[in-house]
Amino acid sequence: MAGNIVVVGTGYWGKNLVRNFHELGALHGICDFDAAALAPFQEKYPGIRAYSSLSQVLSDPGAAALAVATPAATHHAIVKQALQAGKDVFVEKPIALRYAEGAELVALADAGRRILMVGHILEYHPAVKKIKEMIDRGDLGRIRYIYSNRLNLGKIRTEENILWSFAPHDISVLLLLLGEMPVEVVARGGTYLSPGIPDVTVSMLSFPGGTKAHIFVSWLHPYKEQKLIVVGEKKMVVFDDVAPTDKLVSYDHAIDWVDGLPIPRPDQAAVLAFEKREPLKSECLHFMECIASRKTPQTDGAKGLNVLKVLEACEESLKGSL
Length: 322
Description:
Dihydrodipicolinate Reductase, domain 2, Rossmann fold, alpha/beta, six-stranded parallel β-sheet, 9 helices
């Protein structure tokens, strides 16, 4: 695959995209609106092109695709210009900060027959893929409840709240695992650091199939926790992305009825094996494959819009509680 991708935004997360696309032989160049940020990358990756404005990238015929890792508030404007210039685009989550803006981008991509992929990275995590396979095979039975916690001390933002910063990861996973949209969303939270910007939120989601779920996100937490718990009628599965080992385990817990009373019968954890592969590299490779084959990405614009729809419903509910 030709090296034709330009990473726009080389900061906190963008530098990881630069590394991966370079390792995959697809890095055409980097763009950062802070020109001083370009020099270290040019030293580390000799031969790549460097741009200090979006217009320079869009006017370069050798730059066939963009990977956008700028602040979320800029996604709509940058992706819109890129699509209008005939470029394929990978954009980090969320696709935009408003559903209408996201819908405009999807329509532009469809009209121009451009690839539009959204960086919902957990959908490319081998542990999440394993859980999805188990659910689809019926190993867990009917899914009763899903807990998703994404907690940390920082990285605190002022341009977006914790819901928009952290929860897109968890929402995308829930929609992937259950294969349906929620019918009801209730969100509650608290604002402690910056006026009008919630730092802690809990979102409760109800799905048509009867499954309930909650998403707990916070950047005011004493330690880092990224944990997904799927409770099925046959098995329970825990994915602890922070654990150094045994990240994915299952439990065959059972409930016995004795004299009309439910008695839990706990079972030992069974460690589940899964492929050890960096999710971001898989995600970047998938984008490259979609560029080459013109196939629809796993996390295409439409899926990005579904996440936006849930986020907006959570946001609306959250406003009523603050």
